[in-house]
Design goal:
The protein is of the alpha+beta class. The chain has 5 helices and 8 strands. The strands form 2 sheets. It has a 6-stranded mixed β-sheet. Strands 4-5 form a two-stranded antiparallel sheet. The longest helix is centred in the last third of the chain and has 14 residues. 26% of the residues are buried.
Length: 165
């Protein structure tokens, strides 16, 4: 399956916003996600894709490894003859791995932030195609600055309002 990114742009600014869509991306008018209209009132809904989906436009945050995974890694490193200090460093690196590649691709994050600054708000919903849209999704409010500075702040399955101006 694939990711899809639904963007709700205020109707009065949608045409202008779409003209500034980053090269290589398409915004397809959407009716499939009509259930989101409850929360995106007054907005035109679009699915933003590159090619046929948005998998290249969004990367989920990596899940923290569980205790059993860390134990397996420790055992593997011990069998390879690693010193205790080296094992500790390797496990610490795994636990503290940055999320720099998670979230929206930077060009898309900038476009969304620009729309919010110009239109006052934009809505965003990142959806894994095989999952059902929650009847009452978790909501998240972000500023354009936050979206630009930390694209990983955008998480899947949340109705995100980016407000600013």
């Amino acid at each position: 399956m694939c990711y899809f990114i639904v963007v709700g742009i205020p109707e009065e600014t949608a045409a202008t916003a779409l003209r500034s869509l980053p090269a290589g991306l398409r915004a397809i008018p959407d009716s499939q996600y009509g259930g989101l209209n409850r929360w995106m009132s007054g907005c035109a809904l679009f699915v933003v894709v590159e090619g046929m989906c948005a998998c290249s436009l969004f990367t989920p945050k990596p899940k923290a490894p569980g205790r059993s995974r860390l134990k397996k890694l420790r055992r593997k490193y011990e069998q390879q003859g690693w010193s205790e200090a080296k094992i500790q460093r390797a496990l610490a690196d795994i636990l503290n791995r940055p999320e720099r590649d998670a979230g929206l691709r930077p060009g898309l994050a900038d476009w969304i932030a620009d729309i919010a600054e110009g239109a006052g708000r934009v809505y965003l919903y990142v959806h894994w195609a095989s999952d059902k849209i929650a009847r009452d999704p978790l909501r998240q409010a972000l500023t354009p600055t936050a979206v630009r500075a930390d694209p990983a702040s955008v998480e899947e399955g949340r109705l995100i309002t980016v407000s600013g101006g």
